[in-house]
Amino acid sequence: MSSESRSRLIAAIDEAMRVDPQNLRDVGAAMVSGCNAIDDYFYSTPDPDKALWRDLYLQVKSEGPWAGSNNNMIASKLVEVAGRLGWTDEFALAKRVLTSPDPAREARSLRNPSSKSGCYIATAVYGSYEAPSVLVLRRYRDEHLATHPLGRAFIRSYYAVSPPMAKYFEGRTAINRLARRLLDQLVIKLEGR
């Protein structure tokens, strides 16, 4: 049942992304079909796939005729799912996209993590790539450091040394607490800019 409802979900979202926004009848049918498929998969699957949720949410916010729009029924339904299932990291991701000055651009940048490397150490310390503090650090990297040569050099250096350091932080609670305190102070300063 789970793989079948997953396949139906992906097909329904793909169909909704291709529908002509001028044809209101097709739009309505595609939105209803997409929302029903979302319900069928996320509420009936014992352990629904959060990565699938993330992929679908970022896809519908970054592609097609409703990219970035707040009138996107499929995206709204996915946000509802994250809230009802208590997925705080996914809900924070949706909030970040929705409150961005350019939601479609924000969704595209989050959708293509291979184009921008992850925050290895912060992710290891906070335990999630989508933790709110990690989002602040990534936003600073993307919007400030990456905009000038010295910042880009710092980013390249960081990604050269950080993967092994991140592995060191995994499972070391005392060091993680210290690193988290330091990162928390940095995040507070970055948010106050």
Task: Spell out the blueprint of helices and strands.
Blueprint: H1 2-18, H2 24-44, H3 50-62, H4 73-84, H5 88-99, H6 103-111, H7 120-126, H8 132-143, H9 149-169, H10 173-191
Helix pairs in contact: 1-2, 2-4, 3-4, 3-5, 3-6, 5-6, 7-9, 7-10, 8-10
Label the structural class: mainly alpha
Identify the overall geometry: globular
The gyration radius over C-alpha positions equals: 19 Å
How many structurally independent domains? 2
| Beta-strand residue fraction | under 5%
Give structural attributes:
single chain, 193 residues, mainly alpha, 2 domains, 10 helices, 74% helix, globular
Describe this structure in a few short sentences.
The protein contains 10 helices and no strands. It has helices spanning 2-18, 24-44, 50-62, 73-84, 88-99, 103-111, 120-126, 132-143, 149-169, 173-191.
Can you tell me about this structure?
The chain is globular. It has 2 domains: 1-89; 113-193, no CATH class. It is built from 10 helices and no strands. The chain is mostly helical and 193 residues long. Helix 7 (120-126) crosses helix 10.
